[in-house]
Amino acid sequence: MDQGARDGLRPKSVRLDDLDERILWELMRDARIPNAALAARLHVAPSTTHTRVKALRDAGVIRSSHVEVDYAALGLDVQGIVSVRLRAQARPQIKSYAAKVIQLPNVLSVFFVGGSIDFLIHVACTSTAQLRDFVATELSMDPVVASTETNIVFDHLIGQEHLGSGGLAALRGPITR
Asked: Are 62 and 107 members of one domain?
């Protein structure tokens, strides 16, 4: 992985051809697909997909592969999205706050957003009581935080699980009904 990808920087614009995009699409749908099955699905040699996937990783286009965990099966039955607004005087600490929060137990994702709030924090907890205590002690009591608002997640659908056959071009295309 190049230094930019390790530092969390976006890769420079990379020119992808149709095969690269089809490889990415299939990996977005199932990152666990074996190389031989990927090659067969795309009607190319396994050496081709192996070389292309390595190049996409080296270029920082593929940053990682993830396991989707059933948190309820682990006893984490409650998920929440916590909106956090920082105090105006804490604006210089936005990056350090995000780096600190992502390390907290129960935090699954941190989104730095524009608008009236600064962060959306996705958490998993054992109960609503644990969620309440987490927000109260780990988030709301931080001196840089002005306010929090917690929303309970009823269901979490992952976009990649539901990808059709439209490919990346469909994501870039116009929104139609």
From this structure: no
111 has which bridge partners?
120
User: pLDDT (tens digit, 9 = 90+) per residue, 53-73?
Assistant: 999 999 999 999 888 889 999
Rounded-to-integer distance, Cα 173 and Cα 38, Å: 25
Q: Which residues constitute the domain of residue 31?
A: 16-68
Tell me if 119 sits within 8 A of 113, measured CB to CB.
Answer: yes
The tokens describing 2, both together, are 């190049």
pLDDT at 161: 58
Q: 15-47: string of b/e by CB count within 10 Å (b at 16+)?
A: ebeeebebbbbbbbeeeeeeeeebbeebeeeee
Do 95 and 133 reside in the same domain of the chain? yes
Show contacts of 71-78: CB within 8 Å, 24+ apart: 71/124, 75/126, 76/106, 76/124, 76/125, 76/126, 77/125, 77/126, 77/127, 78/124, 78/125, 78/126, 78/127, 78/128, 78/130, 78/131, 78/152, 78/153
Judge if 106 and 119 occupy the same domain: yes
